[in-house]
Amino acid sequence: MLRLHPYEYHRPDTVAEAIALLSEHAGDAMPIAGGTDLVPNMKHKLFTPGHLVSLRGIEEMRGISENDDGFAIGAAASLDDVAKNPLVLEILPSLARACSLVSGPQLRRMGTIGGNVCLDTRCTYYNQTLFWRKALGYCLKKDGTACHVVKGGTRCVAAHSADAATALIPLEAELRIVGPDGERTSPIGGFFTSDGVWNRRMEPGEILVSIRVLRPGPRTRHSYQKLRARDSIDFPMLNLAIRVDFETDGVVADLRAAVSGMGSYPRKLGKLDAEAVGKPLSEEVVEQVAEQAFRQCHPLANIPVDLEWRRAMVPVLVRRALAEIGA
Amino acid sequence: MREIIRLTVNGDAVETGVPTHYTLLETLRYILGLTGSKQGCDKGDCGACTVLLNGEAVLSCLMPVQEAASGSVVTVEGLAAGPRPSALQEAFDLTGAAQCGFCTPGILCSATQLLAEDPDPDRAEIASALSGNLCRCTGYTKIFEAVELAAEATRSGLAPADVLVARRGVDDQA
Questions:
Q1: Cβ contact (<8 Å) for A232 and B21?
Q2: Cα–Cα distance for residue pair B146/A280, rounded to 1 Å
């Protein structure tokens, strides 16, 4: 049995009320949406805020709406709602797929897409009970000074392992964030940092309110691939999102990819376009892209699965993604 | 610190004082005495705590009780309407889908939502709907058979036992 610490629970109706509550209890308050990551983390005593500000009752954060140039997805829309939304399925299938692969069915009904984007990093030495962590002398990310993944390391390398966040990067989504000083937007590509302790460029008093995704062009294709031990419940050991823009004649105009499940943030892979632009997506080109992706990926022992296998699966996921895109 | 929580549990309106940091599962088990929903991993991996909240199967161990306030909760204790078990519960009994039984309340809740939304699911759809519920005993085969039996019984308007009798009749003629 894992008990929660005592806290006070607030259920505001509007974003403004939520921001006011977070400001009022600054330093001792956290926002909670689906709670599927925060609640287990609180049970592990990784966070012990005196006040929780629930975002689930805020109507303006829940909807998925279509406008002239794309979509606005409320950050408190559940992963299940995004995965099953007919418009998302038709126009942003890689995002629908990523959301449909998060954990299991019950968690997808509770967990939100905003929570997935703001997901805390994970590590073998972090997502454990207080008893377990204390026995090891804690770690760099929480309460300690030593890193157990990189011996002698001074920088936390806990893994980013969110599906929807990774899928949103090649889609070039834009995040609408509201805080005590007003509203700002951030491209998702610039949202993350490599600091495993706190990998979001977001202050504790701020809330991710909605996610804007532009409608892809008629010759743009996306794919999302995930590696995990079972087809349900598990976090990704590796995930990959690829976008390919084609010319009218099937020649590649641009190719972009993001990977996660390795370091502390979803990373864009470089130089893949150099292998493919100006050529059709032939078997040879696919192999060159897969090889280039493999060279850039170096999994760490931050999640409990064999490193060599996770690395060897990088080109496999690239081949699967490009086969789906080329089909 | 406690607060008054109002919710509907298995059709009964409930108003009770609950510690503010309790989950829905702790409220069900330790305040209301409904111990059918199980506390397994207690962190969202196993699905043993699955209950229906407004008809949707969710994990009660991860749900702050305030999120269920004003909602309608159905636990395994509320699946049977009246003195007889539900078709699904009877099918679990008849096919031997419960062994140790610890996962069964959660699986019954997940399967109840599935059958409410899809009266004729195929094996893959059943597996997908139950993929958030771990069972260490059965290997799932008997559970899938139970869900199929309950679906067939509901569609045909027969009791699950009568479906089995009818199936045996077909076998005998063959």
A1: no
A2: 51
